[in-house]
């Protein structure tokens, strides 16, 4: 039995479906994500990638199917979803920072308001996370004083302040100028190297090739192919994936 078999399943999705009226956005999707695994989801715009990701922490309510996080069925009516969300950090395309608060207060807000940490503890954690993303000197800055890449690194630090076990990234570089993309991807690379369980919806094929343990190709609400990066990018089998890669590589 190889080492992967001993790893804990952190996310288990079984027969997930999501409809908007008659429109099927997610079509009977099942997938597991192991502890410490980095899974990148690629595919054309409108294929259901972001909707799938948002279902993982119930920002989108699924139509049917079950989602398990750390062994807990988060689609059960009895689950306290807010408690589960504390274990799941999420970083969006847009940064969602509070412009009337400096960076340090943005990072401290949720842990203090949710009574996860005292103000002193939250401050120390926030300063550590800013150092981790290379922004120790920006604690007193306000969001409008930061570049897009800096804002996104702050958003990652803010998510990390909740000490999540899982990180979800929804196209975190798509709103950035090209020269700012690298600094955000570098932080994500470091998180992956540290063993964070990550699910990343991305258009950055090079990042997916370098960092992912597994790549899922999504189109029309389904995972049409999955595998390790070398196989997906070097020897794709599905004709739709072959066509997609010809256009983006």
Write down the overall mean pLDDT: 94
Number of helices: 9
Largest sheet: 6 strands, mixed
Uncertain runs are none
Structural class: alpha/beta
Helical content band: 25-40%
The main sheet orders its strands as 6-7-8-3-9-10
N-to-C span: 36 Å
Query: Helix and strand string, N-terminal first?
Result: EEEHEEHEHHHEHEHEEHH
How would you portray this structure in words?
It contains nine helices and ten strands. Helices cover 36% and strands 25% of the residues. The strands form two sheets. The protein has a six-stranded mixed β-sheet, sandwiched between helices. It has a four-stranded antiparallel β-sheet with strand order 2-1-4-5, with helices on one face. A hairpin with a 2-residue loop joins strand 1 and strand 2 (23-34). Helix 3 (103-113) packs across helix 4 (119-132), helix 4 (119-132) packs across helix 5 and helix 5 (148-160) runs parallel beside helix 6 (178-193). It has 249 residues and is α/β, with parallel strands linked by helices. The chain is globular. It has helices spanning 49-55, 81-85, 103-113, 119-132, 148-160, 178-193, 205-211, 229-234, 239-248; strands spanning 9-20, 23-34, 38-42, 64-69, 72-73, 88-91, 166-170, 197-201, 214-219, 222-227.
Could you give a short description of this structure?
The chain has 9 helices and 10 strands. Helix content is 36%, strand content 25%.
């Amino acid at each position: 039995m190889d080492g992967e078999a001993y790893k804990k399943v952190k996310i288990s999705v079984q027969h997930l479906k999501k409809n908007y009226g008659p429109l099927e956005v997610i079509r009977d999707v099942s997938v597991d994500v192991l502890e410490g695994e980095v899974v990148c989801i690629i595919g054309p715009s409108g294929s259901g990638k972001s909707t799938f990701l948002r279902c993982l922490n119930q920002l989108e309510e699924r139509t049917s199917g079950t989602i398990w996080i750390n062994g807990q069925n988060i689609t059960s009516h009895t689950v306290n979803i807010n408690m589960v969300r504390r274990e799941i950090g999420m970083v969006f395309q847009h940064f969602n920072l509070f412009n009337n608060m400096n960076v340090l207060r943005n990072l401290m807000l949720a842990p203090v308001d949710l009574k996860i940490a005292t103000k002193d503890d939250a401050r120390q954690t926030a300063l550590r996370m800013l150092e981790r993303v290379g922004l120790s000197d920006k604690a007193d800055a306000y969001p409008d004083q930061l570049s897009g890449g800096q804002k996104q690194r702050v958003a990652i630090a803010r998510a990390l302040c909740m000490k999540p076990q899982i990180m979800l990234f929804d196209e975190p570089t798509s709103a950035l100028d090209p020269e700012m993309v690298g600094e955000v991807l570098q932080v994500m690379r470091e998180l992956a190297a540290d063993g964070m369980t990550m699910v990343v919806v991305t258009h950055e094929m090079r990042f997916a090739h370098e960092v992912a343990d597994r790549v899922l190709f999504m189109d029309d609400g389904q995972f049409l192919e999955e595998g390790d990066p070398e196989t997906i990018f070097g020897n794709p089998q599905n004709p739709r994936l072959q066509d997609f890669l010809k256009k983006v590589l």
